[in-house]
Amino acid sequence: MDGRSLYTQYVKPPWAPPSWVIGLVWSFLYVIITVSFSAVFYSTYKKQIPWVVALPFALNLLFNFAFPYIQFGLANNFLASIDILLVVGTLIWALCAVWLKAPELRWVSYANIPYLVWGVYATSVQLAITYLNR
Known about the structure:
Radius of gyration: 16 Å
Number of strands: 0
Shape: elongated
Mean pLDDT: 95
Low-confidence stretches: none
Strand content: under 5%
Structural class: mainly alpha
Number of helices: 6
Order of helices and strands: HHHHHH
Largest sheet: none
Helix content: over 70%
């Protein structure tokens, strides 16, 4: 059984969203992420802000893109829980870094509030799935 089929059989918390909502939300969030993270990487490339500001953004992308593989490819809820905690942790780090070290890019912090809210919500769902299916 593949990871996506297995996922449909997991016991989920009552607040878990239906699959179509997940796809819709991520479509919206990836637009925000693309525009705002690109601004940070471009400013770093132009040496307008220090590279240390871009580091948590890069790590966030790495952990974000790893999640579907861990959750659906490996079907490993425990590792997926660790990964999603890293997604939220690096996002908080990134938004604080840009706020403190790149005042001209503070809009990036505001723009990513929906991503942060969804990340915290998705983390609660993932942690509950991991707990309920241990």
